[in-house]
Amino acid sequence: MLTSIISPAWRASTHRVQFRFGRESAAVWAQGADAHLPWSVQWIFKRNSSLAPRQLMWFYASLCALSLGLAVVFWLRGATMVMPFAWLEMLLVGVALLVYARHATDSERIDLLDDRLTVENTSGRRVERVAFNPGWVRVEPRHGDGSLIELSGQGRRIAVGRFLRPELRVQLADELRWALRRWQQRARRHAPPDGLVAQERVATAFDPGVNDETYSAPVIPRES
Q: At 132, is the secondary structure helix, strand, or coil?
């Protein structure tokens, strides 16, 4: 049984959603032989950082060279107290940039593939990963219409949308609901009918060739 649980806190649209944040692979509307191609949607959100960690390292190195170079000039001219303050200044700037660099690569990743909805949150060195059955995922705001999006189901929950503006989180929730509905329709279309499954089970139970090790023909006694 496939059931997609949708919270009434946010009203999802019934029309097809054009993905703004997600990247769709294959085609959910494929027909014929293409209908069995794997369909997936991926959402990736990253912190809006003006400098990458490598660029940050070069910036700090050039800043140290400039500051310590000026300190050396003042040292040679007799201002010996400039050098200790220059080292202290570079130490404090280095600590601040290190804290910034640890979270420069923070990200959120959502993958809807096959029978799994996987959500991965990366914050510094901490990685939180949760997997759901797409048919039992609840999509709802954590507190209000502009709050983080909470995905929950089967006793697990995780919040996404940290790197989106509050007014854009409603659209992300709409995309997630639409993708879950399409997954549900695709799963129903590819699932075998209940009657066909029952016939296969009956045929398997009474077919001697299915299990030759346990099947033996009945012994008919001869008349004396």
A: strand
